[in-house]
Write a structure and sequence with these properties.
Blueprint: E1 3-9, E2 13-19, E3 25-31, H1 39-49, E4 51-57, E5 64-65, E6 71-72, H2 74-79, E7 85-91, H3 94-99, E8 101-102, E9 107-116, H4 133-156, H5 165-173, H6 186-215, H7 226-234, E10 239-243, H8 247-254, H9 261-271, E11 276-277, H10 280-289, E12 293-298, H11 299-308, E13 314-316, E14 322-330, H12 337-350, H13 352-363, H14 369-378, H15 385-390, H16 396-410
Parallel strand pairs: 1-4, 1-7, 10-11, 10-12
Antiparallel strand pairs: 2-3, 5-6, 7-14, 8-14, 9-12, 9-13, 9-14
Length: 415
């Protein structure tokens, strides 16, 4: 009699439709095992250790705590005894460490950010840049209104305009150095003098802004370091972008940080509705079209896609926002923890992660989104359809692990 292993995971749901005897359409849900994380590991260990397994769909949630030690997702399945192991490369956090056991880390991933490269600033209309177009419209409108008001007032008092009213009032401002025939009312003088004072203030502000623009380089400011990243997020100059079903966004929201980049990202996410994208490739396309967004994710994936997938020049931050430790989760004191940990440590010592990354980088060499997937499918570097399907996993980190396990147990070391 074999042992039944209950596995909590995140995977793609395939919807199929069938018709019953009455002709009504019935919607069926199927968990696609190809898209589930570490599925090859389960298959291989099943044959090696003679156990059965049943997949439990964790509703695209690795494990979120909602106060009073109430959990959802894979961690909740483990705590309730509904699952024996949680896979999909779960991030180790302080709260999760308190309630479940993790094997020794399977991978340490750098958390990086990427954005569209700063474009060159145009020198055209430089004299107009110190003020926005709304302010320019208000200035023009105010001058027109003041002139019409003074012109109308001069006609109303019955004065023959032998001298333009603006020149006459300017003489008032110059202590009446010009001889005039009539004394203007005091409220006309106040209006004109207020206008003149406003012009003096605006001229000063305009000169200062114009000087600052002249001192700028011919490119927009780069966002390359953590300090620059924090300023961009804190001031809402840029918006963070995450993979929709990725682990990183939930992990950041659970961190109790008081400062640093994760604090400001969490602060932004709590105040704004963040835009989520389906996978990293969609994220690269999005930031190319929307230059005020920053894609946050696995630094190695971002670097790979920057060189092989992006059609425009992208800037990858030189400093990491942090380190993400990915592992498998087990119930407390689980007998499965030790054998799984030993297998993962063996894989790490073999250094097969870098080999797999090299293979992927060789396969992804066409920077054309429309032909991207087809080039991978037909380039003969992926031996089976399963390997092609694995390329579409949303969680690339888990994909690395599942492929490594595939190599380890099948002894396919040569690439």
């Amino acid at each position: 009699m074999s042992y039944l292993l209950l596995v909590s995971l995140l995977c793609r749901i395939d919807k199929t439709y069938i018709r019953d005897n009455n002709g009504s359409e019935i919607e069926l849900f199927n968990l696609n095992p190809i898209y589930s994380v570490d599925y090859h590991l389960l298959e291989l260990l099943q044959r090696k250790w003679n156990f059965r397994y049943r997949l439990l769909y964790a509703e695209q949630n690795w494990g979120t705590c909602h106060g009073n030690n109430t959990w959802k997702g894979s961690i909740a399945y483990l705590l309730n005894g509904d699952a024996d192991i949680g896979i999909c490369a779960i991030s180790r956090t302080y709260l999760r460490n308190n309630v479940v056991d993790f094997n020794q880390f399977s991978m340490m991933d750098g958390i990086g950010f990427i954005l569209k490269y700063p474009k060159k600033t145009s020198k055209q209309w430089l004299l107009m840049k110190p003020f926005s177009w709304q302010i320019w419209l208000m200035i023009i409108a105010s001058f027109i209104l003041v002139y019409l008001f003074l012109h109308y007032t001069a006609h109303k008092i019955g004065e023959l305009l032998t001298t333009p009213i603006i020149i006459r009032l300017y003489a008032i401002y110059l202590a009446r150095t010009m001889k005039v025939h009539h004394l203007e009312p005091i409220w006309i003088r106040i209006t004109y003098l207020s206008c003149m004072l406003s012009m003096i203030v605006m001229t000063t502000l305009y000169s200062a802004q114009l000087y600052s623009y002249l001192q700028l380089s011919n490119q927009e400011k780069q966002i390359d370091t953590i300090d620059q990243f924090i300023i961009a997020i804190r001031t809402n100059t840029y918006s963070p972008l995450f993979v929709k079903n990725g682990n990183l966004r939930n992990m950041i929201l659970q961190l109790d940080m008081k400062t640093g980049p994760f604090y400001w990202i969490s602060h932004y996410l709590k105040r704004n509705n963040a835009i989520n994208i389906g996978n990293y490739m969609e994220g690269i396309d999005y930031i190319q079209k929307n230059p005020r967004y920053i894609l946050i994710g696995n630094s190695r994936i971002l670097e790979l896609l920057r060189k092989s997938f992006a059609q425009e020049r992208l800037l990858l931050g030189s400093e990491l926002l942090g380190i993400d430790i990915l592992a498998y989760a087990f119930q407390k004191n689980s007998p499965l923890l030790k054998p799984f940990s030993e297998q993962i440590m063996t894989i790490q010592e073999m250094g097969l992660i870098n080999r797999w990354l090299w293979k992927v980088s060789q396969a992804i060499n066409i920077a054309n989104p429309s032909a991207y997937y087809e080039s991978i499918r037909t380039n003969n570097r992926f031996r089976t359809n399963d390997e092609w399907e694995m390329m579409q996993l949303i969680d690339f980190e888990a994909l690395f692990n599942s492929w490594i396990f595939f190599i380890q147990f099948r002894c396919q070391i040569n690439m």
